[in-house]
Design brief:
The chain has about 190 residues and is an all-alpha fold. It has helices at about 1-45, 55-60, 65-75, 85-100, 110-130, 140-165, 175-180. It is elongated, with a radius of gyration of 28 Å.
Length: about 190
């Protein structure tokens, strides 16, 4: 009889403890859901990319660069539903920026363009990192979003600058002078 009452008492205590744990778990989930909703609202307000316009000559050169078009197209599409949608978008932007750096057209395959794309890739990777950690680092994400806009402007200005420089005609004798200044052109020694 004592063991039966002891078993009933132990099971009652276990049941009560489980209900208490479930209540604490439910409260914790509600707090997390509220926090995620607040983070979503903050990121949703800050998620705006400004894509500068290119000059007509530069657009002519970039028209065959599909990956640049795909990246700018993805930047124009804003996630709407949840924080998870922003996490997927951050992952996708990170992947597209890596592909962009690997498919640079020959006209733009210069160190200044490569470095600007590398910086953009780093910024997108940072957004992807900070939006996927728990708890979400919303302030860091918002700060990096504004930095991405600056880097996008710098990239597009650099593209315009390269096209503008390529249209400047060379003067007579300029190519020979560059050849004479080239340090890789060594005079063979006897």
């Amino acid at each position: 009889m004592k063991t039966a009452s002891l078993v009933y008492f132990a099971s009652f205590c276990l049941l009560f403890a489980c209900q208490k744990d479930n209540e604490q778990l439910r409260i914790a989930r509600q707090k997390d859901a509220l926090r995620n909703e607040q983070v979503f609202q903050k990121i949703n307000q800050a998620w705006q990319f400004t894509i500068p316009s290119l000059s007509p000559n530069t657009r002519r050169f970039t028209s065959s660069w599909n990956d640049l078009f795909l990246l700018t197209n993805e930047l124009n599409k804003k996630p709407k539903s949840t924080l998870g949608a922003f996490q997927k978008k951050a992952r996708l932007l990170s992947q597209k920026s890596v592909v962009l750096g690997n498919t640079i057209p020959l006209v733009f395959n210069k160190p200044e363009i490569k470095s600007r794309i590398a910086v953009l890739t780093t910024k997108f990777n940072q957004i992807n990192l900070y939006i996927n950690v728990t708890p979400v680092q919303d302030q860091k994400v918002i700060a990096i979003l504004s930095e991405v806009n600056i880097e996008l402007k710098a990239l597009f200005l650099q593209l315009d600058e390269l096209v503008r420089k390529s249209e400047i005609p060379t003067e007579e004798g300029e190519s020979e002078m560059k050849q004479m200044l080239d340090t890789t052109r060594a005079i063979p020694s006897k």
